[in-house]
Amino acid sequence: MMINLLEEVVHMKKLEIIIRPEKLEDLKLILDGCKANGIMITNIMGYGNQKGFKQVYRGSEYNVNLLPKIKVETVVGNEISETIIEKIVKEINSGNYGDGKIFVYDVEDAIRIRTGERGSGAL
Q1: Contact between residue 109 and residue 118 where contact means Cβ atoms under 8 Å apart
Q2: Considering Cα of 50, then 51, then 52, then 55, what sign does the dihedral take?
Q3: Torsion angle, alpha carbons of 52, 55, 61, 64, to 10
Q4: What phi and psi values does residue 22 have, to the nearest 5 degrees?
Q5: CB-CB contact of 109 with 9 (8 Å)
Q6: For residues 77 and 9, is the Cβ–Cβ distance under 8 A?
Q7: Rounded Cα gap, residues 87 and 7, in angstroms
Q8: Which residue from 80, 97, 102, 76 is spatially nearest to 17, judged by alpha carbons?
Q9: How far apart, in whole angstroms, are the C-alpha atoms of residue 4 and residue 20?
Q10: What tens digit of pLDDT does each residue of 40-72 get?
C-alpha cells in the first residue's frame, strides 16, 4: 500500500532554471505555451565554467567573476516537464558559455493554502 501511495504522490517536477537576464521573456513564452501555472523569478549572481571575464576600467584591469543571472522556478506535471526542458534547450541555447542550467527535482506534494487542495490540483 505504501508503494502505491508514493507512486501516486510523485507526479510533479520542480524545474529550477538559471538563464541570462535577456532570455527571460523567451522563457516566459515557453512556459506560458506549455501551460505552466505559475513561476517564481529571482535575480541572482554567479558563475559557472566561464569563471567571469576581465574588464579594463580607467586603465586598471578587473576580474568580474559574478555575473547577473535569473533563476526561474516552476512546478509542473511529469507529463509536460520533458517538453518544457526540450523547448528551453532548443530555444534559449546560444551555444556560448553562460547559457544556464536546468535542475529537476521530484515534488512529493503541493498544498494550496487558501483551499487546502493537494497534489497537481493545487498547482
Answers
A1: yes
A2: negative
A3: -30
A4: -70, -10
A5: yes
A6: no
A7: 27
A8: 102
A9: 40
A10: 999 999 877 766 666 777 777 777 778 899 999
Residue found under cell 574588464: 55
DSSP output for 50-86: T--EEEEETTEEEEE--EEEEEEEEEEEHHHHHHHHH
- In sequence order, the β-bridge partners of residue 68 are 45
Q: What is the pLDDT of residue 21?
A: 96
Q: What is the pLDDT of residues 69-83, one digit of tens each?
A: 999 999 999 999 999
CB-based contacts of 56: which residues, under 8 Å, 6+ apart?
Answer: 62
Report the candidate in 106, 88, 91 with the shortest Cα–Cα distance to residue 18. 88
Q: Are 36 and 14 in contact (CB under 8 A)?
A: no
Cα–Cα dist 72/70, whole Å: 6
10 Å Cβ neighbour count for 84?
23
Reference 26, options 105, 80, 75, 99; nearest CA is: 99
